[in-house]
Amino acid sequence: MKPNYQYEKRQREMEKKKKKAEKAQKKATTPEPPPEPETVTPQDKA
After folding, report:
1. Rounded to a whole number, what is the distance in angstroms from the first to the last CA of the chain?
2. How many helices (H) and strands (E) would you count in the chain?
């Protein structure tokens, strides 16, 4: 019986797609570090 290359190739492509999707999801769910609020700045200028 000859190996089913189409199947293997498909499996690899599916794996790639899954990884890419996971990466995109992770990127979407991780919030960027919020900008520092101005209320925290030291008040030595006053």
Report:
1. 84
2. 1, 0
Between CA 34 and CA 8 the distance in angstroms is 44
Residue type, 17: K
Break the chain down into helix, strand, coil percent, rounded to 5.
60, 0, 40
Per-residue pLDDT 10s for the chain (46 aa) are 888 899 999 999 999 999 999 999 888 877 666 666 666 566 665 5
pTM for this model (two decimals): 0.51
State the Cα–Cα distance between residues 29 and 43, nearest whole angstrom.
Answer: 35
Tokens coding 46: 């006053």
